[in-house]
Amino acid sequence: MRCAPQVLACALRAIEHAREVTETEAGSATDNPLVFIDRIGTPPTDDAPEAFADWLRQQPTDSVARAVVSGGNFHGQPLSSVMDYLAITMTTLASLSERRVAHLVDEHHSNGLPPFLILGSGLNSGFMLPQYTAAAIVSECKTLAHPASVDSIPTSAGTEDHVSMGTIAARKALQVVHNARRVVAIELLAAYQALWFRRPMRPGAGVAEAAAILDAEIGFYDAAKGLPSTDRVLYPDLAKVEALIASDLLAPSPQPSR
User: Is 255 part of any domain?
Assistant: First the structure.
């Protein structure tokens, strides 16, 4: 609990680094070979390919050779590495989130909250199964967080002897991000439910702002209010919270500096 700010700061830096590298690589030349026309001379202003081809054939061979550079800009290692980095960091974020959910549903660690965040738990399992779900998702993330960029299998009769596995790394990272969003949604739903049992205490400004949005979208579960204790299907509510996270509506509003 006490290390959450430090760990989340690492997650934020990883996201920023992954964005920076992705944007840089998206704007980079990846052709092979690269042809630097200015090393040859001034090409014709005519845009027709035939005119350029005729001009190129007329140039000295050594000039053309100097203009052609065979490099490895097509290699996807920069993206592969940061996608693995992102997957590992987001797995850590999801893991911390699940542990906070576990504390909320455990009466031995929740400082007075009812078992599984529900009154009369028993036939009503409350938030027991969402924590199961979060634990299963985090376990999946741990498997997906194994780096793809460390693997390579030679192809093309040994010519292509090292590849980045960047597409695998990117697909895994995308799945981990989706998984982490779902775990955080479970935590928000559980924390929102826990607020009912803390009344008349009031949350801080940022939490109150988020709770007001959830009041309009979801509402507290009836059993928290002492009403008949029946299980409630939680999947639709979880989907709503995921959508709210994706939309940035739950992001805190900027606070005035002091």
Answer: no
